[in-house]
Amino acid sequence: MTADSDRFLPRPEHRFTFGLWTVGNIGRDPFGEPVRAPLAPTYIVEKLATLGAYGVNLHDEDLIPRDASTAERDRIVREFKAALSATGMKVPMATTNLFTDPAFRDGAFTSNDARVRKYAIQKTMRSMDLGIELGASTYVFWGGREGVETNAAKDPRTGIAWYREAMNYLCEYNIAQGYNYKFALEPKPNEPRGDIFLPTIGHALAFITTLDHPDMVGVNPEVAHDTMAGLDFAHGVAQALDAGKLFHIDLNGQKPGRYDQDHRFGSEDPKQAFFLVKLLEDAGYTGMRHFDSHAYRAEDEAGVWEFAAGSMRTYLILLDKVARYNADTEIQQRLADIRARAEGSEPFPRFSASHAAALKSETIDVVSARAQGFGYERLDQLTMEVLLGVR
Ligand code: DIG
Ligand code: MN
Ligand code: MN
Q1: How far from 147 is each of 3, 47, 83, 159, 274, CA to CA, in Å?
Q2: What is the pLDDT along the chain (391 residues), one digit of tens a residue?
């Protein structure tokens, strides 16, 4: 029997990744100054490698200061690549910081200043170049500043049209450069803008259908962002999976109706996290398990690494719970009974006039259907008992 610590010890094959900005979060918030010193990207790579992570992700400015000279940029990239090769850590995803620069005060791709919209596209192309240099294959677009505080600012259709203009242009750049990135839009309902364009997975999926290269673009949903909006995150992920558009995922913890807490994965709603992990595993998701989250502001650096280790450990513990759930005979028998009732006596056929005519005249036993419950209370209790460790 392997020791408990071995069973839940993260390894690179688990494909856990962290943004440099996550463990590098210095704890600044709207009401307080930083509480932790900045961590060098190379140090972050080394520390996460020792914890068993697979890789790191980054915004351009997480690695290269906005005002860096070309020589400084090349030195920083050289040193970072040396840390990657020394540790075997990868960079699966890259993205652009289109939210810190004051120029983005009214948005980046959707700013009411044409110069800023051009600057945002220029900055994204340069950041795509950096991502390719580091081996990234997924490129995330989180439009944190794409929105308004008042609809007096712009017709929302104009904002969406400018968003599409930028995405179409950058899809062409991806093709022209031969980068072969998979683009992933990251929805969020609000914060830092009063209301953000593409607020949910559904809005993003609809927007993708209007692009010139829809096949190139998917989504990068985040637990906290759907939860902030009071939505069931697993339902949104299921919608993305159904559309073949789950290109990446941001894992964390969040209480409904709060600001974007970005807490440690599984720390707020273990049942929601369990069913998310079960959905991803049932769907055969082979992408990165990316934690876009950070340690509590009350923590020092030691707490940051506890946060990182706990994120991965919780995912592995939930994987073990999924295995227990799938091996539990009473749970599986109850699920089989539900499936039998759901599937009925024969599969529902595609439409035909003859079938429609027969169906319209069929006598269906709705009376007993009205009377029969589904046993979900017992099934959910059994689920809770697996999660609480008594099954
Ligand atoms: C916030 O949820 C955003 C930024 O952290 C980043 O641009 C993106 C990548 O995961 N998530
Ligand atoms: Mn978030
Ligand atoms: Mn995110």
Answers
A1: 50, 36, 37, 8, 33
A2: 456 558 899 999 999 999 999 999 999 999 999 999 999 999 999 999 999 999 999 999 999 999 999 999 999 999 999 999 999 999 999 999 999 999 999 999 999 999 999 999 999 999 999 999 999 999 999 999 999 999 999 999 999 999 999 999 999 999 999 999 999 999 999 999 999 999 999 999 999 999 999 999 999 999 999 999 999 999 999 999 999 999 999 999 999 999 999 999 999 999 999 999 999 999 999 999 999 999 999 999 999 999 999 999 999 999 999 999 999 999 999 999 999 999 988 889 999 999 999 999 999 999 999 999 999 999 999 999 999 999 9
Burial 209-243 (b: 16+ CB within 10 A, else e): eebeeeebbbbbbbbbbbbbbebebbebbbbbbee
Q: Which residues line ligand 1 (CB under 6 A)?
A: 19, 21, 59, 95, 140, 142, 186, 222, 250, 292
Q: How close is the Cα of 366 to the center of ligand 3, in Å?
A: 46
Ligand 2 centre and the CA of 142: distance in Å?
10
Tell how far the Cα of 186 is from the centroid of ligand 3, in angstroms.
7
Domain boundaries, the chain: 3-324, 329-387
Which residues are catalytic, by number? 59, 62
pTM reported for the whole predicted model: 0.97
Interatomic CA distance for residues 294 and 282, integer angstroms: 28
Ligand 1, atom nearest to 262 Cα: 2
Query: Which CATH code is given to the segment(s) 3-324?
Result: 3.20.20.150
CA 145, 150, 153, 158 dihedral sign is: positive
| Closest ligand to Cα 124 | 1
- Give the ligand 1 atom nearest the CA of 99: 7
